[in-house]
UniProtKB/TrEMBL annotation:
Gene Ontology MF terms: cyclin binding; ubiquitin conjugating enzyme binding; ubiquitin protein ligase activity
Protein name: E3 ubiquitin-protein ligase E3D
Gene Ontology CC terms: cytosol; nucleus; ubiquitin ligase complex
InterPro entries associated with the record: UBQ-conj_enz_E2-bd_prot
One family name in Pfam for this protein: HECT_2
Enzyme category, top tier: transferase
Catalysis: reaction(s): S-ubiquitinyl-[E2 ubiquitin-conjugating enzyme]-L-cysteine + [acceptor protein]-L-lysine = [E2 ubiquitin-conjugating enzyme]-L-cysteine + N(6)-ubiquitinyl-[acceptor protein]-L-lysine
Subunit structure: Interacts with UBE2C/UbcH10 (E2 ubiquitin-conjugating enzyme). In vitro, interacts with cyclin-B.
Transmembrane segments: none
Protein purpose: E3 ubiquitin-protein ligase which accepts ubiquitin from specific E2 ubiquitin-conjugating enzymes, and transfers it to substrates, generally promoting their degradation by the proteasome. Independently of its E3 ubiquitin-protein ligase activity, acts as an inhibitor of CPSF3 endonuclease activity by blocking CPSF3 active site.
Domain of life: Eukaryota
Gene: UBE3D
Source organism per UniProt: Neophocaena asiaeorientalis asiaeorientalis
Length: 389
């Protein structure tokens, strides 16, 4: 087949479960030089009078050229077509916590942003998942006697680590090197015994990295600290600190949380709120079996941001596993009505992260959306993005 283009951008979205793929060959305009496109099971070849460009697919990904259908030209995008595809491509995920391998081992907790050691040589004898947030109400339904666990919070012992949806609960010992929570008076409203609102000072419970001043978590009690998964890396003590680009780490952790929650609870809509209680992002998980392959011959016009350093590499092609999401920002009172309806919907799950991380994720989503072909950027009034796994 032939197309009019001098410098084509290739975008390939493969769905493993459906064994299908959407191929988009982007062209700068309709007045370019003629270009012949040849599709083989393992490669894409584009020929023009100016030369020939060949894109090889990752190992384990194969297309079925004879299944090509739905060929059409979309203004602003280029050529669209669908075809059958088989993908076995898989990358090693950034493990937020491997319960089997790290239980019984000595572990070191690092600040993901700067590598500062938060806790050194902590031997974890038990790594246990916390129950559902509404577990107390379920116990009331199961028990024929008063709830024995009423008003008894679950706190880890010295060698325990409890895992929540997006956080760890650990017990801090005095002899460990640990971040000191900053304590500052914060004016909060509370209801007094005389039924009048009074201003009462409240301690700031934020746990902050001593080196880079990033918020790592919050103190839950005098001995228990909650660390957010997006801020901490846990490694066996014999291993060195792994240097992972910040945006890659945040994407992987959030993507894994969404996939695990959707599988365990059949929940596909999420509100991401900051530690200040404000909603920042509404997320709707579409699928988690996507492989994205794209190639762009020239990216000199794209400005680099430190947060997105792993998204803009020197090579012209890349492939990654991803989850596809719809999102809406809620900052500056945007989508307030929709956010309010989601917050009151029992089928929507809420995730709490540091406010700065919520803003980082919003920037990552916006950057992902901006790099998609124009026709794929919106769906049902939501914006579309991919999060790398």
């Amino acid at each position: 087949m032939a197309a009019a283009a001098a410098d084509a951008r290739v975008f390939l979205e493969v769905r493993r479960r459906l064994q299908s793929a959407l191929l988009i060959l982007g062209v700068p305009d309709e007045g370019g030089l003629p270009m012949d496109v040849c599709i083989t099971p393992t490669s894409l070849q584009m020929k023009s009078p100016g030369g020939c460009t060949e894109l090889w697919l990752p190992a384990g990904v194969r297309l079925v050229p004879s299944s090509c259908r739905g060929l059409r030209h979309v203004a602003g995008d280029g050529l669209h077509l669908r075809l059958q595809a088989r993908a076995e491509f898989c990358t090693k995920l950034i493990s937020v916590f491997n319960q089997r391998s790290q239980a019984q081992e000595c572990c070191t907790f690092y600040c993901q942003s700067c590598g500062e050691i938060i806790m050194r040589n902590r031997k974890l004898l038990r790594v246990l998942p916390l129950p559902h947030e509404n577990w107390g109400a379920l116990v009331d339904e199961w028990c024929c006697h008063p709830n024995p666990f009423a008003n008894k919070p679950l706190h880890p012992q010295e060698n325990d680590c409890f895992t929540g949806d997006c956080f760890f609960l650990v017990n801090l010992r005095r002899d460990l090197q640990q971040p000191r929570p900053e304590v500052a008076p914060v004016e909060t409203r509370c209801l007094s015994s005389e039924n009048h609102l009074k201003m009462k000072p409240k301690a700031n419970t934020k746990v902050i990295c001593k080196r880079c001043k990033v918020m790592l978590g919050e103190t839950v009690s005098s001995e228990t600290t909650k660390f957010y998964m997006t801020e901490i890396i846990i490694q066996p003590s014999e291993r060195n600190f792994p240097i992972i680009p910040r945006s890659q780490f945040v994407q992987s952790v959030i993507a894994q949380c969404l996939v695990e929650l959707s599988s365990a609870r059949s929940t596909f809509r999420f509100t991401l709120q900051g530690h200040d209680g404000k909603a920042y992002i509404l997320l709707w998980l579409l699928n988690s079996d996507t492989l994205v392959i794209e190639a762009l011959e020239s990216s000199t016009s794209i400005k680099k941001f430190p947060l997105l350093e792993d998204l803009l590499k020197a090579d012209s092609s890349s492939a990654w596993n991803a989850v596809k999401v719809l999102y809406q920002p809620c900052i500056k009172s945007r989508n307030a009505e929709l956010a309010s309806s989601w917050e009151s919907d029992v089928s929507v799950h809420s995730l709490t992260l540091p406010s700065a991380t919520c803003l980082e994720l919003l920037l990552i989503l916006s950057r992902s959306n901006a790099t998609l072909p124009p026709s794929l950027r919106c769906m049902n009034s939501f914006q579309v993005a991919f999060l790398k796994m």
